[in-house]
Amino acid sequence: MTISTIAIMSPGDMGHAVGRTLRESGFRTITALAGRSAHSRDRATRAGLEDVDTLARLVSEADLVLSIMPPDAAVAFATSVAEAMASASATPIFADCNAIAPATSHKIGDIMTTAGAAYVDGGIIGPPPGRAKAPRLYVSGPDAESLVPLSGPELNIVSLGTDVGRASALKMCYAALTKGTMTLDTAVLLAGTRLGVYDELKAELTGSQGAAFKRMENRVPWLATDSGRWIGEMEEIAATFDGAGLPAGFHSAAADIFRLLAATPLAAETRDTADRDRTLDEAVQAFAAALNGSPDAAR
Asked: 31-48 as b/e, with b when 16 or more CB fall inside 10 Å?
C-alpha cells in the first residue's frame, strides 16, 4: 500500500524528531494528544505534527502507526490501538519501534494480527534525527519492506528480513552494551565512593583507562535524566538474554542502577533543562546520597 499519512505515538524526544523529519520528507504526520502533557503538546507543535485528538481518529486517518515510547508502555498501547482499529474499522500498518525483547515483539505482533493489521518489528539505534549521524530504524517482518521507502537523509531505515523479532534482537544486543556500560560505569564510581577510594580510583582510571574515564565524565553527570524510561529497557534486555540462554542478571542489575538514579532530584531534569555545568563528582555525590537512603538499592 502507499503510505502518505504516518501517525507518531508518542511525540517524546525521539518520536517528535522522527515525526519532524518524516513531515519534512513530504509525509502527512499526525498524533493524538488527548490527555497528553503540555510538554508533549509543545514537542508535537515544534515538530509540526497534526493533532487528531483520539486514537480512533488516528487509526482512521493513518496508513502507518509508529509506536515510539518507553518499552513498558508498548504492549498496553498496542492493545489500545487494536481496540481503536476495531471501533474505527480501520487497519493501518502498525510498527513497534520500541526497545523491547523479541518475545514482547511477537506478543504485540499477535495483537495486531488478531486485529487484522500488518505488523512490523522495529528498533531504533542512534540519537534522534537532526543530531549528528542519522539514526537507523531497523525493521523486520513480512511487511518490513513497506517502510524502507520512508528513508531520508536524517533517518536510515534498514530491513533485516521477514522474521519478526530480528530488529528487536539487534536493538537489545546493542543497548545491552551501550546502556549496560553506562550503568556499570556508575556502579563502579559509587562503589569507589562507598568504599572510600573514590579519589584514588579516579586517579588510576585517568592514568590507565583514560578513554573509559572520559566516557564517565561525558555521560554519568546527566544519566539520571533518562533513567526512568530506561528501567524498562534494561528489563527487556534481561528477558532477551534469558530467552537466549544467557544470564539475565547483568541487566536486571542495570535496571536497579537506573531505578536508583530515577529516585534522585537530578531525575527531575529533562534533556533541555539539565545542568550542563554539573561535574562528575557532583553527580556521583547526588547518586551516593540516594544510595545511602535506600537499603533496597544498597543490596
From this structure: bbbeebeeebeebbeebe
d(CA 157, CA 147) in angstroms, rounded, equals 7
Largest separation between any pair of C-alpha atoms in the chain: 65
In this structure, CATH architecture of domain 170-298:
Orthogonal Bundle (1.10)
For 18, the grid coordinates are 522522527
Domain assignments of the chain as residue spans, ordered by start: 5-163, 170-298
What are the angstrom distances between the C-alpha of 34 and each of 20, 120, 250? 20, 25, 38
Number of H-type helices and E-type strands within the chain = 12, 8
pTM for the whole structure: 0.94
CA dihedral sign of residues 73, 76, 79, 84: negative
Which of 3, 56, 53 lies closest to 30, judged by CA?
53
How many angstroms separate the CA atoms of 190 and 193, rounded? 5
Fold of 5-163: Rossmann fold (3.40.50)
Condensed to tens digits (0 to 9), the pLDDT of residues 233-287 reads 999 999 999 999 999 999 999 999 999 999 999 999 988 888 989 999 999 999 9
CB 121 within 8 A of CB 145: no
Note whether 228 and 262 are within 8 A (CB). yes
Paired residues of 65 in beta bridges: 7, 94
**Is the preceding omega at residue 25 within 30 degrees of 0, hence cis?**
no
